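Below is how a single chain appears once it has passed through the pipeline. First comes the sequence as given, then the structure the pipeline wrote out for it. We keep one example in the README because the format questions we get most often are answered faster by looking than by reading.
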Amino acid sequence: MSVLALESIRQNPPETASRDVSEHATETVPPKGGKPSSEVGEDKAREERIRERTRAVVLPLACVGLFLFLWQVYSQKEGVTLPGPAAVWRDSQQMILHPWFDNGANDKGLGWQVLASLKRVAIGYGAAAILGIIAGILLGRMKLLHQGLDPLMQVFRTVPPLAWLPISLAVFNQSEPAAIWVIFVTAIWPIVINTSVGVMRMSKDFENVAQVYEVKGTRYLLLVLLPATAPYMFTGLRIAVGMAWLGIVASEMLTGGVGIGFFIWDAWNSGRVSDIIVALAWVGATGLILDRAVALVAKALGAQTD
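Resulting structure:
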């Protein structure tokens, strides 16, 4: 063996050479002419997200377009008095494009009408939320109280909103507090029932941990009871906000004044069916926003309901 060969073996022993070969063998070698597998997976995930977002936009728009098309076709049938989308746009274009006009008294745009209704809803729903949560906690903690009041609650919660209006008018003798009372009494029952169920179904582990760490009073309420029952509580709040919005529209039809409910009733008496359809779109959009707002608050507090 030559001196040069011996020197080469000394500088690169077989073990080192084999180790280098094994290390190179274990390295990830991308496919010839392609991307590494990790990048391919990321690309596929990105494409899937894009498809999901596209479907989330395209499918609702397609359904809305189909609905408007079928509505337009139906409205052109002989004997049908319901105006189609084209007629609604033609008859109520100014109201659609200018919802914040204010000509004084009751002659206001749909934006002001909805805002007036939302103010009443805020008062009635806020009172229902506060008192409903308190009552729900008490009923959930006190079984005897729950057994005594449950039949009464089951009767009251099935009463339609408009059925409360004559009673509230007789009690308050004014339309404004009467409308707020209708909202309150309509919205409170889902909150009370769901909160009490959440308290009764709270895991005993929370109680045991609270006893071990001697968490009592206000600290127990804020750190144990409310977080444990929050999903049930916000389920009731979401149901209640929809019922409150239904209640205000129904009550304003009879109490008068500025409000989306009275606007719809006044438009019907004046034969403005196109204005009613536009107002219904505002009612539906506002109800959707209210529901999503409560859901976002629940999500921010870690109490998602769906």
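The chain has a mean pLDDT of 85.

See the next section for the split statistics.
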